[in-house]
Queue: 2 jobs
Job 1
Amino acid sequence: MHEANPKPPFNVTRASHAVMTARDLDATQAFYCDLIGFQLSARDKDAIYLRGLEERGHHSLVFRKTSGAPACERVGLRVFTDDDLEAAFDHFKRINLSPAWVEVPYQGRTLHVDDPVGTPLEFCSVMDDLPTNLQRFERYHGASPMRLDHHQIVTYDVQAATDFYLSLGFRLTEYTATDGKEELWGTWLQRKGNPHDVVYVNGRGPALHHCGIAVPEIRDIIQVCDVAGSLGFNKHFERGPGRHGIGNALFVYFRDPDGHRIELFNAHYQAIDINHTPLRWDLSDTRRSQLWGLPAPKKWFYEASNFAGKPLCDPTLKADPVTLEAFLANQF
Amino acid sequence: MHEANPKPPFNVTRASHAVMTARDLDATQAFYCDLIGFQLSARDKDAIYLRGLEERGHHSLVFRKTSGAPACERVGLRVFTDDDLEAAFDHFKRINLSPAWVEVPYQGRTLHVDDPVGTPLEFCSVMDDLPTNLQRFERYHGASPMRLDHHQIVTYDVQAATDFYLSLGFRLTEYTATDGKEELWGTWLQRKGNPHDVVYVNGRGPALHHCGIAVPEIRDIIQVCDVAGSLGFNKHFERGPGRHGIGNALFVYFRDPDGHRIELFNAHYQAIDINHTPLRWDLSDTRRSQLWGLPAPKKWFYEASNFAGKPLCDPTLKADPVTLEAFLANQF
Amino acid sequence: MHEANPKPPFNVTRASHAVMTARDLDATQAFYCDLIGFQLSARDKDAIYLRGLEERGHHSLVFRKTSGAPACERVGLRVFTDDDLEAAFDHFKRINLSPAWVEVPYQGRTLHVDDPVGTPLEFCSVMDDLPTNLQRFERYHGASPMRLDHHQIVTYDVQAATDFYLSLGFRLTEYTATDGKEELWGTWLQRKGNPHDVVYVNGRGPALHHCGIAVPEIRDIIQVCDVAGSLGFNKHFERGPGRHGIGNALFVYFRDPDGHRIELFNAHYQAIDINHTPLRWDLSDTRRSQLWGLPAPKKWFYEASNFAGKPLCDPTLKADPVTLEAFLANQF
Amino acid sequence: MHEANPKPPFNVTRASHAVMTARDLDATQAFYCDLIGFQLSARDKDAIYLRGLEERGHHSLVFRKTSGAPACERVGLRVFTDDDLEAAFDHFKRINLSPAWVEVPYQGRTLHVDDPVGTPLEFCSVMDDLPTNLQRFERYHGASPMRLDHHQIVTYDVQAATDFYLSLGFRLTEYTATDGKEELWGTWLQRKGNPHDVVYVNGRGPALHHCGIAVPEIRDIIQVCDVAGSLGFNKHFERGPGRHGIGNALFVYFRDPDGHRIELFNAHYQAIDINHTPLRWDLSDTRRSQLWGLPAPKKWFYEASNFAGKPLCDPTLKADPVTLEAFLANQF
């Protein structure tokens, strides 16, 4: 039922980058470079391009200046070669999506398409190379972000989104479903052999819930919290530290100056073997979101970055998540 | 104003141990040994005696079986020699307290007295020696608790408590006071050269708020949370992880099976020099309790372990702390 | 020149397991389970089967009892499906190797073949599933080994070995070559998107230099050293901790009771994109083996586990590595 | 036999600072500030003054420019009050040492005296206060050095040195002695309640073996090694990481640009109680210097910083320590 297509039409390799808009590039750079620890790859008057410490590709986070409301413009996926890009174009045409070739700075040939639930995607196989900072240990600071790992997206139709990515050869590692049924609330889907490249969760969407950034160790999770306190970024702190049941991430969530959310996490596992069957979590099992800590505050559930120009749809499924407010009201 | 007596009547060296009651010694042992990582020094049908991994003294936590409501019986302080015990007896007599010599298993000569705000104290200079587990690294697990570090006590009169400990040569490292006044809300007092041996905070008391247990590293704070999740101790988790502004502790708080609270923390600093003047925090500065994380839930502020047989008094000062409930209601 | 075959004849997914012989299974179990922290999946009178904490496959290390000299029997690779196994059989026939179907306990269909430089390989797509211990945090101890990551093999002909694995679609991430030439001394080859599944280095071979085991954090590297000291495994300690230039691993090397070597390491990077070109290290650059620490002792360079029944050949290239002995004699 | 004087003539509180000479202050600053992570408190054309991240006192390491051979000028100890300084002056006079009052920048009243084995000591009770960087987490880098912890000194007469410090109220925590005798090879002596303020070891002296600097965590020990590799300080790396049996320190040793040695370590224990009896290590027990790692290279045993103007004397006891060279020659 949750089977990946064994003969995908082209080879998507991984979640790669995201493009967002920001109202004040100085504030954005201060947040991502001074606090979180990203490297600045390029900046011009309209945009900043950032990469993690180990990344050789030119950028994994791009922020373009806006004078309007901040939004996410695109989430980026990498395909293996330009032949895969061609095959992707043909495939999307065939299934009646609307792919388009575009020019994007610092990237090779690039394809845009919206997925069936309205998520604006960007595919490419190459970016300009830049030196890795993997062994420039003197530059490790803040959370010492190593690389972009995954995108979590809110959608009104988790089943439809899941079917699409399974058809592209994504494999399901974990999922949340209504107790006793196969009604999907959230799906963790991957190509690169760890828990997730894209995650789709039920809610008013399409919207970007967060980008997940891999960091080396537990210490880095705490260090970035401490530095946030030192540098006065306290109000950007949203949730954590805690341990997700799903995916096993030790996490902390921050909101950037425009409200875009990032997860800093470590401790993903390997998911490569054919007999690595999807792990199911009942909706009623609160351990899926937090193995030991407090639940999330309500805003973590209900706020996300709109995709530029995409109207929001109400989700097919309705539920009251166990928020921190509810937890405190009822259990303490 | 907050000066330690330069010629104290006897030499208190440190916070040493606590004696509490518990309804189910098996449950208590499971919590402290299996989860937190304490070593069991002795157990008989009436009591269990625990020590941290580096401790050579016989016990730092004692739990005696009760069929009634659990309580704290005594907080223990160490004096340097038995001569100091004699001097302590004489001093307490002189200031009209009621010291008494008692026999306590596994301890040398032992003195009981209540401090002026009703805290039942126990003083000794020696305990039976047991082997340290400092270099038995295979026994490190859970939080890898190294040693008892301090007692935090709720009192109706912080000024009176503070004056008493200053007179015994305790030094004030940090304190909370009403903005613009020297009205004391909490005082961190020490003899051993780090931030605290005893802490007195304003509230309905006397009551034991928590015992503070030193652990080696940030990793141990997270590890014990993870193990709590694995072993099903989630409901014992109360607050954290977070960073206290006061004392700089990275902390997590658990409640034991009888509701007694422990803090697991690391990162204390050294406070030895004469010109290490007390650090003042205004009551309105929420960073004193949390540098970057969420505030504490209400129960953290209002629940504590009664001292056996000691009636509670309302505090002289009234305030609404910034609880997690208030924070969520107002700011998110 | 170092190009992976873009259309490999079948899909190898990763390094998976190793089969070795041991003279005393109790001693082997004590080393791998009590010290290193592996989980025992099965034991009978002839063999023990071990897996790392996150592994769901039945075993990643197998030790079979021998009354003779200990050796490595096979290194195991996983293919994606049983269709890939069939394709592998046909491919190996076609290139005049001698594949054979075998029955192996706890594994699905299994294929044996020797690679062109004499390394005995074992391929399968499935093993029996066992519960992961990823979220059984109370079982984390020693090095908290998560999974087998790679095999390092000594060969008399690095070029021949490398050509073979490139033809199977392995990609080269890093390599060592004679200064100014493309004469290969060592090649790091991968399928799973991190630095290595198999590594071939120049020397008297074929022989297994070590299996690389991924651990979560720096702390785990130090913790296992401490526990080795506590439990009396000091003489099993061989090299480290240190940081490899190649692959960026923070490493420590132990020898097991039969002399088989394991590397415990963390901090691998992701290697997925097509423009992730191989990183070259000159033979004269000692930073390739150690970024900051002391060089390896001579035995690290010259001792390895023979493959059972495989004669050793002298390598085509001769060199004096910078051993610890040479380093101390010359530079201190 | 190893009893501290219960009524010391004055109150020494702790090891506090060291004054050394350096040939190139820029190189010294680069080493201590850029690599190790010290804060620069002051610099003029003749000297730099450094302090650790938590220190409020003006300096714990001072380097004065020299055009000659670099040396250590003084090791500094703190007394509690200026009354203790007066008592110290009188005491040293009485026992026929030659105390002298001196003016030292950024310090209060200061007393100089040589101890009976020729170590030049400097005592003061106050220094100028500077802000602590304890909660300026954005400044933590390199090893994140928190504070100077102890001085290790090579002496020709360990017994004489030990007797002197015991007479000042120092307590012995651990010591090395000839197997079966009480002939002292090394003594760990403390006032502040952890394993050591001064350590005296047998050898050609007086000479400063190293200053010990406390760092927060294991991670910091590895991080500074990595940064040393990144920034090209490899040749300054001398020994480690490893675990000392004595004192339980996880350590790494560096040599600064003038050859002065520093130990970066964590994991000291508390030593306060009267029944904390000295721990004895036989000379033949190599675990005293390294619980699990390789022995030290010869230079670690035989090189030290001379004290300016102090002639060296041969030690009373002769031994061949187990050097790395000997270990490699004999055991591998």
Job 2
Amino acid sequence: MLSALDLARRIEAGTLTAAAVIDFCAAAIEAREAQIGAFAAFDVERAKSAARNPALIKTPLCGLAVGVKDIFDTADFATAYGSVIYTGHHPPSDSALVSMVRRAGGIILGKTVTTEFATLQPAHTRNPHNPNHTPGGSSSGSAAAIAAGMLPIALGSQTGGSVIRPAAYCGVAGFKPSYKILPTLGMKGFSWYLDTAGLFAAGVADVAFAAAAIAGRDLRIDQSEPKPPRIGLARTHIWEEASAEMQAAVETAARKAATAGARVSDITLPPIFEDAFRAHAIVQDYEGHRALAFEYDHHQEKIGPILRAQLDHAASITAEEYDAARRTTKRARQALADLMGDIDVLLTPSAPGAAPEGLASTGASIFNRLWTLLGAPCVNVAGLADKAGLPLGVQIVGRFGRDRAALEAALFLERVIAR
Amino acid sequence: MLSALDLARRIEAGTLTAAAVIDFCAAAIEAREAQIGAFAAFDVERAKSAARNPALIKTPLCGLAVGVKDIFDTADFATAYGSVIYTGHHPPSDSALVSMVRRAGGIILGKTVTTEFATLQPAHTRNPHNPNHTPGGSSSGSAAAIAAGMLPIALGSQTGGSVIRPAAYCGVAGFKPSYKILPTLGMKGFSWYLDTAGLFAAGVADVAFAAAAIAGRDLRIDQSEPKPPRIGLARTHIWEEASAEMQAAVETAARKAATAGARVSDITLPPIFEDAFRAHAIVQDYEGHRALAFEYDHHQEKIGPILRAQLDHAASITAEEYDAARRTTKRARQALADLMGDIDVLLTPSAPGAAPEGLASTGASIFNRLWTLLGAPCVNVAGLADKAGLPLGVQIVGRFGRDRAALEAALFLERVIAR
């Protein structure tokens, strides 16, 4: 994989150029893209041309190549949102987040594959660790491109588990910041209460570097050794739905963290969290039925069967059920704040297990939905694997607005796992 | 003005057709649009053709004509967001709210004029009560079209005071619902924390009818007489910036409400609200600098001077200031909930006074920003006027999520004012 932080340091030191990074990406694309299918579009020549701008060396991203999930509008690349309804669509402007990437000195190398409208309807991307397995979704191409060394940084989005799950399945760092830290304007939305922009990179320090550069925030965590965090091991009420290997991975991570000096305690989540877990689908689908109303009402035959069934069902959710779900969410957010009074982060699975076989499903977001609903920062930490060698990701969940602490804890965990 | 509720009742009763309503609108447009300039585009023939669909009589909106602020994407009308950058832009789809209008049986008669990107940079629309005065903004065309009898229902949006202020200046009912009740997906955004979709109609019962129909919510308040509400008279810390006539209007409204049985008490807002008032501009401008990054970075010469100066200034706002403003907001929201423990609504000015003379400014949003920031439902109540006969609007502010109670109190107030 391409470490964004390492590349940026070498560019700053004058031992590497941004154009050479594009060459690294191009070589990996040449070698692997035909099999993986991570990109909806890319333009190596245009990126190399842009990378030759000498001013980029002074920018936060140093001219590093960035992939953009094809759910974000770009003025220079067609943007199809993973839907045949939008094949060849050229937006008139960049989405806000893409503009922020460009302002930070990032070069958009291409658009990465999204599932249809960033939902559960799969796309064709394959998992670089085993092409017979899903890379997860909905940010399928972003996670796969990082894993295959085709990009150092990629943008994604999460409404259920669309950043953390593919990061886990592909063995890369995924970061879903606190709700509304990164804008979703100019992104095709599904749920205005849940849609959250996120980032992918090789390791936790890389994704923190990218977040710091793009958001202009104090999120770089590579300048000092992270302190041992206070970790709450949250098995959650769906622990039994995690595979034995995932359960072992989480417990291994917890044990290694404790050995390295972290204070690890078992946390039992209060019952409100089970209500909130159920509230997620109500909020998401009620809003999705309205967010995709134009497509559902005018192009229903061009919507995939999984998404169409979801939208069919969503039509029956009432405003009263939706309002109740939002009230539950509000209570659960307070409960999470109360719960984390004397711990820094929660440790919990990133997914039920390793990437499932086949491309008919992108896997389940059951270990992600709750944290998306609660707006908490989440980081996938890679480094563990199942017997077949497929990545098993564990998840750090931070307090709302404490994104830096979440990233520091994730970096700590990544390092102790790697020992 | 065209009462949406009255028209819908007559259509349901079979004494009027949706096509005839389009004719009413067309006649008013013919008579007044050349002077007022409320529309960015309209298509009477297409609307009449759509209105002939007999199934519309069974829909919530009964085929009523609706105007859409040109900040919302429409697939059938060009959408320019009030900016020359987007002249002739044809979005590939309807915004979510426009789809909801169509699902509810509304017919989009045209796009109404917005100020540039729904900001303070004025457009050319004039006030129907006196064409030498501004109609307010940013939903200038929607408010003016209702006031001139050119539409029974219009969509707007508010980031500062863009629904309530033009409604006040034009003497119509304006409703800014609780934050996130109506979707802003497919609307050109300026501030993702503040942008709120809203509605205009002739009277409070009309706007409640439209909101009920479009949102599919229990918001119709025309079936029984509203009960006298418990009103907190909130002069706010900027009371001295209201004109003497506006101060008198608010106090007249309060006195009439008390005479009619409402419990009216003076409310002193706690100091956190002054902090929140200041936080509004920080949140708005920090986000706006990112929301319009593409336009600012690529088409700066095509941005008007007021907006450009705002965005220039916004570049200096730090993430720390922004985060602090959001924390202040959170505290102020709790303070508002606490404050309203034993009152139903606040009564406060909708604007500093009547519509200012000239078109160089759309007036000040100082009496609106705080409530937008706090996400509370707001209703402009018309019926009072200054010595020159220009409307003076008073504002009802409800508790978050208690939109029905806010509308009921506004209807009560509208009726006692009219006595």
